[in-house]
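Notes from the 1:1 (GR / supervisor)

We went over the backlog. Supervisor wanted to see one worked example end to end before approving the batch request, so GR pasted a single chain during the call. The sequence is below; no edits were made to it. Supervisor asked that the structure be written out right there so they could see what the output format looks like.
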Amino acid sequence: MAKVFLMKSQIMKPRIGAQEVALVAMSAAIYYALAVVASVIMIIPGVTLFYYPEATAMVTVMWFGIWGALAAWIGTILLSPFYGYGYPIGAMFGFFSFYGPLIAGIILRKLHIDLTLKDKRSFIWWILIAAVIAPAIEGAGGVLVFILEGWYTWQFAYTYGWFLWWFGEVTAVGIIGTILMRVLSKFIMRSSLFHKGLIYRESAEEESAASAPEGADRAVS
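Structure output shown during the call:
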């Protein structure tokens, strides 16, 4: 049996730095800009017919991990005035904008889908989880905020309100998100921006391998 001895000072820790901050800032700015445009086609208070930024939230989670989801949260807070509510309410909506794409991203990463969506299996999982299920969960939480704020009744929230929220995000992710994944994923994956892990640029396996530096003392028995 082989035993590997590593000095504590030799263990390499994955880094979080300026690149992650830049990714959040860039993604949040794009999310904010698209949400402002989407506010023009608001059909009921707080809900638009076609919510473009949900597409970018989903794809940036697939490309940049948790940082894409965090950008959606920040972007949602910043756009609050355009949707007629204050920043504290925006922060609550932002939480749902954060966890919906994040949960979808975690599941899809576990399923090891092809980010270019060129095979049928990857495309089906993407549509089912990112475009259908995640918006349904996100919408269920989002309309609850409207109920607590007195904007919607329970009956309206979980019929028209929820359906229109879900529909606006399904169409955005299903159309725009799919196009972005198919066209840009191959370029993002080749760049230093791509995060194989949910938090770090390295995957869990690469992080483990990186923690065993070359030249470490080894004893074999």
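Supervisor's comment: The chain has one domain: 17-213.
Batch request approved.
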